[in-house]
Each structure stands twice: as C-alpha cells, then as structure tokens.
Amino acid sequence: MAFLRIMVLLWADMLATYVMWIMQKYLTDVWKLGVTHAAGIMNVYTGLSKFLPLVFFIFVDAGLSNYRSLLLSSIAFSIGMGFLSMSTPPVLHKVTGTCKDYEPNCLGHTQKALFYTALALIAAGLSGRVVSLVVFAENQIEKNPDEPKENEPNCKSSSMSLDRKGHDGKLINKPSLRLPSFKAKKPSLRLPSFMVKNPEREQQQQTESTKKAEVDLSQLQFQPLEAMLALAQKDSGKLPGACCILLVPVVGLIALPYIKPWSIRFGIPAICTLVATLAFVQGTRSCNKEENRPAEGNTVTKKYRWSLCTRTEVEETKIIIRMIPIWITFVICGVITSVGNTYFVEQASHMNYKIGKLKLPDSVILVFYGISKLQIKSIYDAIGRYLKGARKEKYAPSIGIALATIFSVLCCITAAGVETRRIHVIRSHGLLDKPDDKIPLSALVLLPQYFFLAGLDSFFENSVTPFLTDQSPPSMKKHLVYLSPGLSGLGTVGSVLSVYVVGKISESRGKPNWFQYTLNQSRLDRYYWVLAVLSAANFLWFAFWAKLFPLREPDSNDKKETGNDEEKAGNGELSESIVGFVTDGVMANFTHSDKA
After folding, report:
1. What family is this (predicted)?
2. Mean pLDDT of 396-410
C-alpha cells in the first residue's frame, strides 16, 4: 500500500510532461509572443529542470533524507501547478482588475509573476523526484517483512547513512541491524545468519546494491514510469494496483487535448498533483520524525583542512580534464533535443490531426515519441548482448553515444525536409500572413522527425550515464550520475544563444532574419540544416576524442593512467567492436532471441 501511494506521485510527472509540451503553443497563442521568444522561455525552463537534480543530490548527500527531498519537491510541484493555473487570465481577473479573455492585454504583472514562479517551482519539483523517488520506493519494496506497520513505509531506511545522534548531541555510527522478534518463534541452536560475518560476501552485496541503485537512478532520471513499473514487478501483487493508478493520468492525457479553456487545462493537472501529494503525505505520515542524517561516507563532525593534493587526487583530476572535450558532445546533443519541445510543437500546433472522420488528440505525437524511445532502447540492449561481459560495460556506452549523434543528424535533416514542405503548402494556400489558420497538411508527417528525436534521446539517456560512471574516478561516480542531464540542460539553454547567433548572421547584407514573429514567416528549414551540419561535426568531434580517450575497465580502482600500449589496444578493440556490431551483431542477436 505504501509503494502504491508513492507511485501516485507519477500523476504529476505524466500530466506535467503534457502541460509543458503544449506550453510553447500557450505562449504564442495567449501571450502572443514571438516563436523565438517563447522557445527561449521553454529552453531556459528545460535546462533548469535538468540542472537542478545535481543540486538536489548535493543536499541529499549532505544529510537531507530522500523522504524530505520527496516531500519538499512534491509541495513545490503542487504549488507550482496551482500558480500556473492561477496565472491564466480568467482566474484572478476580479482581484487584479484585468479582463478575463485569453489575450495579452488581460495579463497583468501578477499573472506574469505567478507564471514565472510556477515554472521555477515545477522545475524544482521534477528535480526532487529525479533524485529520490525510485530510491525511496525501492526501500519500501525491500523492507523487512516483520515490520510492525505494514501499510507505512520504512522511512528510516530511505536515508543514505547510518549516523545517529547520541545523548550528548554528537553523531555516532550504529549498524542498521533490526533486532529479531522472538515473539512466537521457536528457539534455535544455530547462530543467526546476520551474526556471522563474511567480509567478502558483504563487500560483494554492497557493490551489487550500489551498482543497482545507480541503474535505478538513471532510469528515474529519464524514464520514471518505466523505473517504477520495474520496481512494481518485484512484487506481483503490486503490479495490478500500479496499473490501475496509472489509468488516471492516462485518461487525463486523452481528455486534456479536447478541453479548450487553458485555465481548466492547467487546473486539472494541478488538482491531480495536489491529490497525489496528499496521498503521499498520508501514506508516509510516520516519516516526519526521521532524523537528519548525512550521507554514507560523510561525517558532519569532520573538519576540512587545507592540504596538498594526494597523487590519487591529481590523477583523478587529469581524468576529468581529459573527459571535458567529450562533454562538449553532450552539450551539442542538448541543443538538438531542445527543438523537440519548442519548434517541433509549434509546427504541429496548426496542422491537421484528422484521419478520415476520426480526429486524433495532439498528444498522439507525444505518445508516439514515448513508444519509440522504448523500442529504440531495445537496439541499445542488443548492442550489450552482442558485446557481452566486460566488453559490454566498457564499449556499449561509447557506441550508444555515437549512435545518438547519428540520430541527431537524421532528425535535423528530416525536420528540414518536412518544414520545407510545410512552407510550400502555406504559400500555395495563401496562409503566409494567417498564422492562426489550420494548415491542410497532416500532422503525421512529423512522426519521422519525432522518431529520430526519440532515437537521439533514447541512446543519449541510456549511454551517457553509464559512460560517465564507468570512466569517471571512483570518488565522483555518484555525482556524475546527475551530470549527464546537467550537460544536456546546458545545451538546451545554449540553444537560445544559437538561435540569436544564427539569426544575426542570416540578416547580414540586408537579408531578412530567419526567425520572424510567426512560424509561417520564419525559415526554420534553414536553421534545421545548420543544426544538421552542427550534428555531423559533433559526431566527428566525438569519434576523434573517443579514439584518443583511454577507456577504463568498469569498476576499476586503479588510480594510475593506463599505459600507451594498453590505450592503443583498447581503442583498436573498440573499433573492431563497432564494425562487428554493424556487420553481423544485430542479426545474430535477433536470431538468438527468436530461437529462445
């Protein structure tokens, strides 16, 4: 029951995803902002929501428990969605003395302040979920069966430390061993298993649990729904309840596109978010007594001192410096990803969603994008099955990143072709100066570019985190889990600068700027071609530095740099792996799957 109440928090994630997906249209239709201005606002929001998880993790690692992180983020989420609904003109028009029409002159300073505050709070809410939701939920599934309260989560197990406060106020460490309950138990002459120390087994279990937690965190970062369903499958009794809970946001996603008033479109997700937060608080009411404990490996009585760096620290710093050129690849991928929630949405907003007499909701594109991501993930899994063992952990992330850059090139080329076709239809029907009219072009023509965008995001999300954790120094593995979305978020914010620079260059020599007030008058097709060239250069950049970067063995504790001979052998082995996979790896794995 506790796990299901935690899973209710996914309501906010799923509905907020749709709300933010249509936010570009809201800003251009209601606020009457230019297409680039609206895209800039959304790109800053997206970049902030991808960078804040690292900040939340630092607080959790410093002593803020996962429960408190979830509680604070849920409250911020609820307030943010409420503010977003209140920022629409009809809600507060009597209080602010403004009109209630969905027009720019009906938006006062109060509504605008509520809107921007809402975006910041929603970004904070999403970030808190990224850090703590799966970790907290996993503890509820794996809690001991002899707990006194079955319907309440083991909130103390969600902390990342074993530190406790003694009577004198000082922190002391106690092992988190639960005293066995001798009630209604038969006496045994054998020594209890938990009293038999096996250092090797304990170390192995700790390593496996740490690696498992990192995987769950990466799944939550990009695919929270899939991660929570995977946890629910650990207990078959929880899976039907989890599916029933998810029916609510699914119905909401189907119904919201048919609701015209923006205040109701934003209000329904706000109500669902509030209900989810209250359900979470009710199901975890015993957690408010949890002590504030620091993360594992940290000691708050610990005094930091100025000292010379050790040789290990120097070598780890060298590793990080060598990784910086590869990080640029992640930033460029973020630039390409940013067009999916901005210009792609603007393209689809005035297209035809009818198939015969059946009119599809605009959320069908978002559903197609999500399904495509899941299907393309199987290709990455096939790469891992082909490489096998240590070679899988060592080379699969690099191959996945290379494929992500290839998909980014295909995405931009396809988007440029579709936009050229859309502009031709607009001009042939005299719609160049009629941005609010429907375009006689099916929105389904956008599916190929959304497919390639899903491929970019899928390979990026499933490859970058393993790459950073496997190739980074041991002391930074936990933090680099959250660095990958931060780098992508930096690219999303950087896309605002790219639009500005490209626009200034395009209007040189007296030519019109490619980015006009409306999408119909803009030349996004040319901007997409610029992004295609940038993506191709990004692929070559990554291939060059991946060739020079010495790949470390997964879970290697060596602090010294790998020798030159080993570096050359490893890089050659990587090239052979890529060629082998392209030639016969996919067919071999699919044949193996069919036989199984």
Report:
1. Belongs to the major facilitator superfamily. Proton-dependent oligopeptide transporter (POT/PTR) (TC 2.A.17) family.
2. 93
